[in-house]
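Incident log, support desk, overnight shift.

02:14 A customer reports that sequence design results differ from what the structure should imply. Their input is reproduced verbatim below. On-call engineer (initials T.W.) acknowledged and began investigating.
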């Protein structure tokens, strides 16, 4: 019975390591001071410090019209971005195109959870002032609230399976 328990323990350890390396899907929700809203999702890989599957939409408010963001901002490639959302709408010369930038109160991790936008400071939607969108210009609107929330991954659900098997084996061994 000890051999079976050891195998289950190994499987549990293996699944834990595998699940921690899985990029996480995050949902975004927020509001701008001009009445516009923010919603959508993206995938963030902590290990590779990379965004993918970006689909963030903002709605029109009194300061500027809404946009759909599908790309990471090229200005900041390689920049530690686990606590920053920096997105653009297109490729090429970005001068005059929309950009979205929000700081989070803490870094995203593979553990998931809910992380609020920073209450003041670096959080806005504006137009790119340069070709690589390294600077912004008007019209600019600030966020008033918002957060990102990790969506549970199927591999996380598998972590309970080895625990259940271990409990079953333990109970069977006690009989």
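02:41 Re-run completed on a clean worker. Output:
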């Amino acid at each position: 019975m000890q051999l079976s328990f050891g195998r289950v323990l190994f499987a549990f350890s293996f699944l834990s390591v595998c699940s921690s390396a899985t990029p996480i899907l995050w949902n975004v929700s927020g509001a701008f001071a001009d009445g516009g809203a923010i919603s959508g999702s993206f995938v963030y890989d902590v290990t590779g410090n990379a965004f993918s599957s970006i689909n963030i939409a903002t709605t029109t408010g009194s300061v500027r019209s809404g946009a759909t963001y599908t790309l990471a901002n090229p200005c900041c490639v390689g920049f530690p971005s686990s606590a920053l959302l920096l997105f653009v709408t297109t490729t090429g010369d970005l001068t005059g195109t929309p950009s979205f930038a929000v700081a989070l109160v803490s870094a995203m991790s593979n553990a998931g959870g809910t992380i609020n936008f920073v209450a003041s400071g670096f959080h806005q939607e504006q137009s790119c002032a340069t070709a690589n969108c390294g600077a912004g210009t008007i019209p600019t609107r600030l966020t008033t609230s918002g957060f990102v929330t990790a969506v549970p991954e199927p591999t996380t659900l598998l972590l309970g399976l080895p625990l259940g098997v271990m409990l079953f084996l333990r109970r069977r061994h006690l009989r």
